[in-house]
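The pair is quoted verbatim underneath.

:::
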Amino acid sequence: SRFTKQKSHAPSVKVAPNWTSESNSNAVYHPSAQSLADAVYLQGVVVTNNTVAFPKSNSPRIIHVIGENENNIRGCIDEAADMMGMRSLHVGGLAAFLVHYNSIYNRDDTRSLFTGGLSDKLKGLAAALEVANQCSPCIVHVEGLDHELTPTTGHMADASGREEEERRILQVLCDKTTSSRCFTSNSHIGHDLFLTSCTAPKVVIVFSTSDSLPPGPISSSLQQTSISIDPPDTNYARALWDYDVDGTFELLSASLIGLSARDISYLRQGFVHEWTKRS
């Protein structure tokens, strides 16, 4: 996946082909994509001692990832969706999504003044979930959740206000993500643990933040631990370097490893430009 420097707030839906890791054995994925795909796979089931327990059908299926956009969170989620045969929808600002949604579907909500506040953000979340349900199975990625809600630290902190905001977000998720799809498998997922059947939600929500979630309703609703979005490893850095088509990666790898995905892609563009200009 190539990383662009500019961040778009427009609705972005990626139609993922029904690929599997077996059919793409030569593909190079984001180093955190497999962990995220595993988390999506296990969203519909809890397994203990060969006993399969299914969460309540109206429980929102939420995954939390920690990382910076510069390490290509969007690309990581797209690749995890590819692995699971799902689509992905990125929401870079809930209120902004509502504006785009209304313009695309010619919906003019004149009942209230648009302020970009919590009410508009909740409407934006509901709109994103509506789109996701229409093109399910789908992963909805809400970027920068920590920027959408009231902070819990600093001079603007409001713990009770933040808790109420999180409760209202979870209520929207419960109202809009109640259906699931069933499938059967025969997968060995651990020591003496086998998954023979599973109910997978049609929509999985991924919240991304730059840091850990504070204690609250959303963190309490997570079924799994948060997933860290790692910087590029050697294989992924080589892929960002146009798969080393010109044989320069090994020469420069010592300087590239440790940089973000954004920086590697940006340097590659500049390198190719200079290389072409001098040749």
